[in-house]
Amino acid sequence: MNRPQNRILPRMTGIASVWTWIKWSLVAAMLVAVAIIARLVMVEIETSRLQARYLSELTRDVGYAVEAGASDHVRFPASGPYDERLGYAMIPAFQQRLLARGFVVSKQARDSERMLALADRGLFLPYDEKDQAGLMLFDSTGAPLFASAFPQRVYRDFDAIPRVVVDSLLFIEDRYLLDPSQPNRNPAIDWGRFARAIADQGLHVVNRHQARPGGSTLATQIEKFRHSPDGRTASPPEKLRQIASASVLAYLNGPQTMLARRTIVVRYLNSVPLAARPHIGEITGIGDGLAAWYGRDFNELNRVLAAPTTAENVDQQGVAFREVLSLMIAQRAPSYFLNGGYPALQRLTDSYLRLLAAGGVIAPTLRDAALAAHIERAPPPQPARVQSFISRKAITSARASLLAALGIDDVYQLDQFDLEATSTLDNGVQQAVAERLAKASTREGAQAAGLYGYEMLAPKDDPSHLTYSFTLYERRNGANVLRVQTDSVNEPFDINRGGRINLGSTAKLRTIVTYLQIVSDLHARYGALSKAELARVKPDPMDGLSLWALDYLSRTQDRSLQAMLDAAVERKYSASPDVFYTGGGAQVFSNFEKSDNHRILTLHQAFAHSVNLVFVRLMRDIVHYEMIRTSGPSSSWLDDPEQRRHYLQQFVDGESKVYVKRFYTRYAGKPADDALALMLKDVRKSPPKIATVLRSVAPNESLAWFDAQMRAQLKGTPAATLSDDDLAALYAKYAIDRFNLNDRGYIASVHPLALWTLNYLRAHPDASLGDVEQASRDARFYTYTWLYKTRYHGTQDRRIRRMVELRAYAAISKSWRALGYPFAEVTPSYAAAIGASGDQPDALAKLIGLIANGGDKAPTETITRLDFAKGTPYETRFVRAAAQPQPTLSPEIVGVVHQLLRDVVLTGTGRRLAGGMTLPSGKTLEVYGKTGTGDQRFNVYARGARLIESRKVNRSGTFVFVLGDRFFGVLTATAHEPYAARYDFTSAMAVQLLKSMAPALAPLIERPAAVGPQAEVAAPATGSASPS
């Protein structure tokens, strides 16, 4: 029975031995495989051979080409400090804005398919990035105008870096980066540091106090500084993105990376962020860091550190090395270490000096010298002083044009863009003009320019208090191209485009154009009617222009628009001074030449000789015409009760808000008792008046508070002896509910809305002006209840007329804005026709340019080309598209205005240029234009319009002109208070100064007119993505 079992047991034991052998064989094989894999991994970690082969093959087709037209094969970065600072991330937004403003994409980068694939997978584009970039401006001749570079101080190549700086950097950050035994090394990852970083991250999950030192290499730190959002590693995927991007970039030139690794050292030192300082901004790179934080000359420091160490220079080297080393360490937390944590930075620097010496990186003598060195941060820099703003006017103008074109308002940001831009300015002529304007502010220069004489400077006048401005445009290829724009003000303020200046009778040009447009409208409305039909038209009696048009058309044989416009400028007006109810009150106007008083002049004559009263009356006719056109017949708004109420409510709402705003501005933001004291300061020390103010402003305060306030206010007056019972009686008598708001204002001699506003602000101290205006509506309307009484019918009529008049001025404002007027509204007064509404020289020049261009509105060009990101896979060039002028004024109006402007020069106030402008070559150019003398005064009138005070605030002389058949512009001379009262010059001085500038303008004027746009290179240019 047992024998079969005995036979089976040895067989089963043999089978078990086989399986055991197989199992251990598999284990051994697995161990061998693991060992082989581990060895391969170790070999790969040491040599990066497989990475080198794969990544260099991957980047073989990475590149880009720059070709004509817009590209759909380009990927712009979304964020990153470097990409934002250089403007790369904003190119798509700029492109959209520039296309809407008359530019086209002339050429743009086409990224290769492999580069696009890398970008679409989330990597940063691999290419040879710029360590230094900035705005470069060129004038229209191609001459450099301005250049900025950020950072300002960089290492140009690896050999420029002192060896001790390189060795120290590698010891601290990436010790094996330049190991020559590893020609294929991937500089993006240090496997030992990376493994330790992962382990520390894991331990931090268990123990949140566990330190988490980073595993970054120099290569990945550069990617972080430049391209990661906010320059930070926000997540593990972002770290992997940095590693992958740095790896691809390292092998862009092939499997051997030593050249790329040396470039990494240069790039890191040039791009490390080192916080910011006032008047400097962000500090990038060791070079700028040394200058900003230690006041060090970068070139001198490098010379010191590159020299062999000797007993004579070791102390100097110690100071220099300590400064560099401290900045290398500070990059870990620059805002802390370079400000409040500076003592900690110095202690850490001491520690690293010892480590560097122990590691053999620096000699003990250098260590000891650096440890003994005491370095202090340089004091905060002062704002850079500009030697002359006048010489920089071209730069200021070009940068302002760029800011407007790109839709940004920060010059500091603009100057850091990787951008080359070409301005239309001719800097050579600009500087020559600026020099002549500056000389005209000296007695010798003014004498040489012929500025002393009749209607100009008197022999006693000192021209040093005068400022001049000049703008010149050229009509070219359907556009107005700015060639010169400068002034003699040694400040960054631009007179030509900034401010609101009274340019005197140049406003007559805007007024006459508006008038002729109205005549054209009347011709279109009535020109085709028969005499019988014209007789049936009944215009409003106020509408003098329609009355004249109907009368003219009913009598003339020639009903053409041209004939009617010619007749319109021959209409006659009185030039007599008078009192005019305009601008909300009675105003008196005068003529410059008293001999013009009481004359009857045509508009043509008055325009040529700048007679004010004629144009005041013309503006009155224009306003009356617009009042009827915008609001209907005068009978409707004067006789209709509903219309009257409507306009009166508009008036009350508008005027009462003016008062509320005034009182809000005076009292808001002040402590309650301080605001009350401010009001009481202007109240007569009478018990009823003081009591009314106190009980109106603070009705809920106690009798004790009232008693104390009253005694304080009445101290030193006969009423100071009032008894407690007397004060209690006043407290009760003048309670807020005993009198209405208007009565309380009357008793206190304080505007009722002032009482209401201060009362509201005591209860609502944080109220905004809008809150106060809304809450005060009932009070505001209540204070004007007197206006609705029938006995004030005449007063009502004046208010109603004022509201209708404001609507008329709104229509005039719209008309002027269509002709380039730079402000939203004209001053609502007849004086707008003689300059009271103000203007800007540049806008005035564009108006006469419209006339010179036959009534077609041409676009203005100040920038012709913008080159973003040259030499990168984001490269984009914008150029001006062909201009399309817009018809704005009819040829008939232009013809009439042109003749008026010619007569100003031939027979009127511009006659100093009646013979034209003669250039040094002997060539003479015809000149026509409009003069204007601004005499802005602060006048005070008594009852009956009696003038009791007149103070000169500004005086100006202006000539807006057309020069030949291509050029137009404007020249102004201005004197401001307190010097304005010393001068009596007129626009004749501006005319004479322009005449004297012929030699300065000749190089531009005599240059042949361009026949086409600037040539563009049509052939595609290729660009390498290689970082070498």
From TrEMBL:
Cited InterPro entries: Beta-lactam/transpept-like (IPR012338), Glyco_trans_51 (IPR001264), Glycosyltr_51/Transpeptidase (IPR050396), Lysozyme-like_dom_sf (IPR023346), PBP_transglycosylase (IPR036950)
One biological process GO term for this chain?
Answer: proteolysis
Record field: transmembrane = 21-42
Q: What keywords are annotated for this sequence in UniProt?
A: Carboxypeptidase, Glycosyltransferase, Hydrolase, Membrane, Multifunctional enzyme, Protease, Transferase, Transmembrane, Transmembrane helix
One Pfam family in the UniProt entry: Transgly
Q: Which pathway is this protein engaged in?
A: Cell wall biogenesis; peptidoglycan biosynthesis
Q: Name one GO molecular function term.
A: carboxypeptidase activity
**Catalysed reactions, semicolon-separated:** [GlcNAc-(1->4)-Mur2Ac(oyl-L-Ala-gamma-D-Glu-L-Lys-D-Ala-D-Ala)](n)-di-trans,octa-cis-undecaprenyl diphosphate + beta-D-GlcNAc-(1->4)-Mur2Ac(oyl-L-Ala-gamma-D-Glu-L-Lys-D-Ala-D-Ala)-di-trans,octa-cis-undecaprenyl diphosphate = [GlcNAc-(1->4)-Mur2Ac(oyl-L-Ala-gamma-D-Glu-L-Lys-D-Ala-D-Ala)](n+1)-di-trans,octa-cis-undecaprenyl diphosphate + di-trans,octa-cis-undecaprenyl diphosphate + H(+)
Known SUPFAM superfamilies for this protein? beta-lactamase/transpeptidase-like, Lysozyme-like
Indicate the segments forming the Glycosyl transferase family domain, all copies.
152-304
Please provide, in alphabetical order, the Gene Ontology terms of the cellular component aspect for this entry. Answer: outer membrane-bounded periplasmic space
Q: What is its EC number?
A: 2.4.99.28
Looking up Gene3D superfamilies in the UniProt record yields: Biosynthetic peptidoglycan transglycosylase-like, DD-peptidase/beta-lactamase superfamily
Q: What is this protein called?
A: peptidoglycan glycosyltransferase
Q: Which organism is it from?
A: Burkholderia ubonensis
